[in-house]
Amino acid sequence: MWKRDESVKPATPPAPSPAATPVAPASAAPVASEPRAQLGRDIVNIGKSVIIKGELSGSEDLTIEGHVEGKIDLKDNVLTIGPNGKIKAEVFAKAVVVLGEVTGNVTASEKVDIRDNGSVDGDIASPRVAIAEGAHFRGSVDMQRSGGNKPAAKPNVPGQPAQQGGQQHGGQQHGGQQQGGQQQGGQPQSQGQKVGA
Amino acid sequence: MADATRSLTDLFGMLGPRKATETDAAAESSVTSVSEAAYPSQSLHKFLRCLQSTDNPLLLDLGPVVGSNVTFFGEQLGCRIRVEDIAADIDRHVKGGTVDQLAEFFPKRFTQDPGTVDGILCWDVLDYLDRPAAQALAKSLCRLLRPDGCLLGFFSTAESAEQVYTKYVVVNETTLRYRTYPALRPRQRSLLNGDIIKLFKDLRVTDSFLMKSKLREMLFRKPTPR
């Protein structure tokens, strides 16, 4: 009897206690003690009415809703140009998210993301670039990989329905329909045929 | 009874347009799916092969900006992509009533040095140009292309009065999605094979495919000088 009671007791209490009780104080403590410092360190916001001319650099993530002219250097951080932000500057950051307007070259070590209604007039250099459907972009994109590895040639996907020659939108044989000999488009094994000199 | 039903139907018909039925919705969605349909491409993967032998190639895209294309070509080729939206140029000239000046505009349009571009995605922009403008653009493109560089062009084989441009969205190496959007002028004419070859007389046609989508896909390469 005694042994049976003792064996049951220790099994039940540990389950709730380590999971539930320590978590609450642990998570609550830092938030309660330094909420302002935490916020101040992680996100800096340049408001709509702010105009900055010159060089802007720092080591914190930054959101710009105002106007900046000159240079922005946040090499290890994320720069977000908000919907109201207008930038005429050379931009260097780890990642750049554009919801507003940027005129100038943008260099990011990780990613440039031009969202819907975002606008970039300038050259982008970044290993990853995403341009949303409604975004405006005018310039060049340099996505050169570090290390200069050649891209692995992806094999064709012959099983894809849209690629089959005899299907609705597939290629079609039209040999000799117009001037010169023509390639038979859409045949899965078809090879190019020289038409010109 | 049948007459009564018919008259009731007529009465309802007089009240206004009938609500869209399920069949209408299906028809509408099928129209959407046609305009957004995926089509095979025989030449795109060959174009990619041309460029994969070059380190950090410079690619000129003459179509409107398609974000997923930029990502695709960037990831496939690790290239520099320059987007030069010729359709926007055409529209701007149409709006300004200066379409006849496009032939003078194109030689000054590109800022790249001659022989520095590795690949050109010409898409179907030449279909929207008059002969002199098309000749001027083709000449400029030939000048920009480096020896052994390649150009991918699409040419419609069917006349169309529809005022739409097409965004060619790359799905994968062998599939494109055609997405139309409003244009200020229709395709001017469908170029014959011989016309196209004449336009790009400085280039060599390496592949020519006539697709079921009534589009001729042509891949050109600039000969290396001996």
Characterise the protein shown here.
The complex is a heterodimer of chains A (197) and B (226). Chain A has a domain at 42-133. Chain A contains four helices and eleven strands, in the order ααααβββββββββββ. Chain A has helices at residues 2-11, 16-20, 23-33, 35-42, and strands at residues 43-46, 51-57, 61-64, 67-81, 86-98, 101-103, 106-114, 119-121, 124-125, 128-131, 136-142. Chain A starts with a helix and ends in a 55-residue tail after the last strand. In chain A, 24% of the residues are buried. Chain B is an alpha/beta fold. Chain B has one domain (37-221): Rossmann fold. Helices cover 37% and strands 27% of the residues of chain B. In chain B, strands 3-2-4-5-9-8 form a six-stranded mixed sheet. The longest helix of chain B has 14 residues, at 2-15. The radius of gyration of chain B is 22 Å and the shape is globular. Mean pLDDT of chain B is 85; it is low at 1-34. The chains are: A alpha/beta (197), B alpha/beta (226).
Quick summary:
The complex is a heterodimer of chains A (197) and B (226). By secondary structure, chain A is α/β, with parallel strands linked by helices. Chain A contains four helices and eleven strands.
Widest sheet, order of strands of chain B? 3-2-4-5-9-8
What is the domain total for the residues of chain B?
Answer: 1
Number of strands of chain B: 9
Sheet having the most strands of chain B? 6 strands, mixed
Please state roughly what percent of the residues of chain B sit in beta strands, choosing from under 5%, 5-15%, 15-25%, 25-35%, 35-45% or over 45%: 25-35%
Number of helices of chain B: 8
- What share of residues of chain A is helical? 10-25%
Uncertain runs of chain B: 1-34
Q: Could you give a short account of the major beta sheet of chain A?
A: 6 strands, parallel, barrel
Low-confidence stretches of chain A: 1-40, 147-197
